[in-house]
Design brief:
single chain; 179 residues; alpha/beta; Rossmann fold; three-stranded mixed beta sheet; 34% strand; elongated; Membrane integrity-associated transporter subunit PqiC; ABC_trans_aux
Length: 179
Amino acid sequence: MLAACASPPVRFYTLGAPAIATGAVPVGSVTSTTPTVTVARITLPDYLDGQDLIARDGNRIERSATGRWASRLSLGATDLITARLAQSRTDLFVTDQPQVLPATWRLAVNISRLDIAHDGTASLAADWSIVPRDEHQPLIHQRATLTRQGPATTDDQVADLTQSILDDLAERIAASWPR
């Protein structure tokens, strides 16, 4: 009888960034002349930056009773954007870890809106800055508003849709990078 009253187990989700990004610069191929990019921790609205898996229903924010991110969403998003940028820009050494020497560029990303609605609409508004170490080079500021459709009625689907729209953001950032 007690088993019937038990709630379903909590499931933990990640944003799918592999532990070793495929397509990234192989170990040993980074030289002192390889341009370095450090990715600062992504900023999110306070209500999103936790471990709760969140979906929107109109003006109401719903926290999942059974789904959690494995870490704070800002950390997972930073890991994902870093991995995707490293995959697409193999000519760069991209990291979100502190480095001994100053980086060639710093990337700062601010996500001001990240909504996954149960109707399957994902929307994201973000701006980012690419800050060169050389003050004679231009500072690059970009902004994007992205939408994506997909199922979002289960925790698995909300996590997948969140990853998909963050992947779209990573593609936009990579495309804006100076050559």
